[in-house]
Design brief:
heterotrimer, A: 221 residues, alpha+beta, 3-stranded antiparallel beta sheet, two-stranded antiparallel ribbon, 9 helices, B: 310 residues, mainly alpha, 13 helices
């Protein structure tokens, strides 16, 4: 509240205050820096809509700035082809995965960074867990029984592990049987570096001769 | 197997895949068998060990090995969880059929058993290929996890200045509320059911023997009934189907006779078996004792449907 | 693993690999980018000594690079007095707090950042948060993995919320796994009007209360 005529309009909260009296664009660095500032505090991939709201600008503008930042971090100036004069890539990158934008350390510095990250990335998934995850990813929403049938083994404990790791989650129940249906989470996509489930590698090349098994394949991948 | 393989010995992706198992050194192979997560995994392992493509021939060829492996596993692990064992057995039974069919001279596909065998083979084949597809995809996922794991997301605690701004919590929870929540959360969850899981079936299992017994009682009482009357109390289609099959069995054994005045006319069933009770138990020799409902992919669950029936 | 003569020395872990065969200086962006990578993702400020060790360079060199980065982020090139051609300051800044370095959002964007942070906050705890709080209260000290196992869902974000709300806090680490153990805070007791954790209502005796929850061992990962 920098002394305006709004004194009697009691601000309803910090948001109102920010919107009324603070102009990010007027600060040093401008909107792009403001965007960076917000990206510094996100805990999960953040959508363009959320960012646009926080900055009180349009989604298109945010999109343009995000791409701009991404290129900047990658050491690409956008001024013609890449040259030796271009700045070096930064030690971090901005990525659009798991349904939103987030800052990550560069993969090639993993040997250095891993020492500083508590616990590092969680331990590897077992073969059973990976197979179960694959079935769920491509058949979602899907019941445990269905996954069991495809893998020909009981998957209860694996499903529990995958749930605890937030790679899958219960997404509904089968209207007929009442069985819990599972699907993958945004965290799953983030961990795989994917924007959406549609970006998963195609399953069909791995299914030779099964194209016509209509009653077998109830989803087309 | 099962939870053991998943939990206690998480096989590293590279070392545990059957493709990478050493072909020589049988002892090593046997030890690693515990890493196979299921019959398909084992089957694929055996096929790739012999450098065969997945074909009908390959399946028939590895049958003996498959069966001897599950015998050995059984010996090593003592008793199995029923649903795990049954999957292996279903696969083993189909493989045996396959092998037997190959040993016999090629003939016309005539009777229902031949067709059933063909269907069982195709089903096994399709399931195996489907499993292999997911297995291959899971390998790609593992690689992606590996590569992406080198990127660490920025995930830093909120700066105290911002934490201080959080709106005051509206707190209405009492200690008793909290205790109730804790009690609910700490309640042991339903454990994995023992025995064969049938929850993947759409309907209930219906016993053909039981239905035969019921029909016998009705017919003995009434002498002659229409099929409609015999199935009037059937709660679901499956029961109707099973009663029909039971009638066919009873007809074969000569204890009932059918009367139908005109084509598509009403079918009347008469008891013609005399006073001796019908040995319903004999039906089990040809059919499984129970019918599972549903023939979609969902029904191909752990050991619930007798594949020779399909 | 950039092709050295160390092929047969199987690395025992990421750290060993880093120490043996990895040279951050040879990666795109070089040492400075490696430094950025670490500073961007560390949870807590890191000391110059830790950074020097991880990068296998001297403390002086690290200090120089840190100051350099700091100025770069501030939009100061170090080439003479500030001019209009200088790059704009970034939305983040490198701060040396209590002997450690970390990257923070730039202070003058606080109104935008707090609007964003508060936008996602509720003044009520979710059901999931309350359940997790209950489990922690009765099982403390307890790891996140253990709580996850009990609740059969991932609790990472909920634990973060509860920590931000000062209802729980890290109270130690598991001597075996190194996992952070959580317990409730005095603030939590105050909220409930209790003098100590011992005053929490007893759970009914048939529950596998506080003693032997063997079923929930979080061993299978």
């Amino acid at each position: 509240m920098t002394g305006t005529d709004l004194d009697e309009a009691a601000p309803t909260g910090a948001e109102a205050a920010a919107a009324e009296a603070f102009s990010a664009a007027e600060q040093p660095g401008g909107l792009k820096a403001a965007l960076e500032a917000v990206l510094m505090v996100v805990e999960n991939p953040v959508t363009e809509q959320e960012l646009a709201q926080a900055l009180a600008v349009g989604v298109e503008e945010v999109q343009a700035m995000l791409v701009n930042l991404q290129q900047e971090y990658d050491g690409y100036t956008g001024k013609g082809p890449k040259s030796a004069d271009d700045p070096q890539p930064r030690g971090f990158e901005l990525r659009n995965v798991g349904g939103g934008w987030r800052i990550y350390s560069r993969s090639w510095f993993a040997p250095v960074v891993s020492a500083f990250v508590l616990g590092g990335q969680s331990s590897r998934l077992s073969q059973a867990a990976l197979e179960t995850l694959a079935v769920i990813a491509y058949r979602q929403p899907v019941s445990r029984a269905r996954v069991s049938a495809i893998r020909a083994v009981n998957v209860d404990s694996v499903v529990r592990t995958l749930t605890q790791r937030a790679l899958i989650a219960a997404v509904g129940t089968d209207p007929e049987t009442g069985a819990v249906l599972y699907g993958t989470t945004p965290h799953f996509l983030e961990r795989l570096g994917l924007g959406s489930v549609a970006e998963l590698p195609r399953l069909s090349p791995h299914l030779p001769g099964l194209e016509n098994l209509g009653d077998y394949e109830d989803t087309t991948y | 197997m099962g939870s053991t393989a998943e939990g206690v010995h998480p096989p590293p992706l590279t070392a545990g895949t059957p493709e990478n198992l050493p072909a020589a050194g049988k002892a090593v192979f046997e030890v690693r068998l515990t890493n196979f997560s299921g019959p398909f995994d084992l089957l694929l392992g055996l096929i790739s060990k012999r450098e065969l493509d997945i074909t009908e021939i390959a399946l028939a060829e590895v049958t003996d090995e498959f069966i001897s492996h599950i015998r050995r596993m059984q010996a090593e692990h003592g008793s199995w969880a029923l649903d795990e064992a049954s999957e292996f057995l279903v696969v083993a039974a189909t493989l045996l059929d396959l092998k037997a069919a190959r040993l016999l001279p090629r003939g016309e596909v005539e009777d229902a058993e031949d067709i059933a065998l063909l269907e069982a083979r195709d089903l096994l084949f399709a399931r195996l290929l489907q499993y292999r597809a997911f297995k291959e995809i899971s390998r790609q996922l593992a690689e992606r996890f590996e590569v992406e794991g080198d990127r660490y997301p920025r995930d830093t605690p909120l700066e105290p200045a911002f934490t201080a701004l959080l709106p005051d919590l509206i707190w209405t929870t009492t200690a008793e509320d909290l205790a109730a929540l804790a009690a609910a959360a700490l309640q042991p969850r339903e454990t994995v059911p023992e025995g064969v899981r049938v929850d993947h079936l759409h309907g209930s299992a219906v016993s053909i023997r039981e239905q035969a017994g019921l029909l016998e009682a009705h017919l003995r009482n009434a002498g002659s009934l229409s099929f409609g009357e015999l199935t009037a109390d059937a709660a679901e289609t499956l029961v109707v189907v099973v009663r029909f099959l039971a009638l066919l069995e009873m007809f074969r054994d000569g204890v009932v006779s059918f009367d139908q005045d005109e084509p598509l006319g009403e079918l009347r069933i008469r008891w013609s078996g005399g006073d001796e009770p019908f040995p319903a138990d004999s039906i089990g020799a040809d059919y499984g004792a129970d019918f599972g409902a549903g023939y979609g992919p969902e029904s191909v669950g752990p050991g619930t449907v007798d594949l020779t029936l399909q």
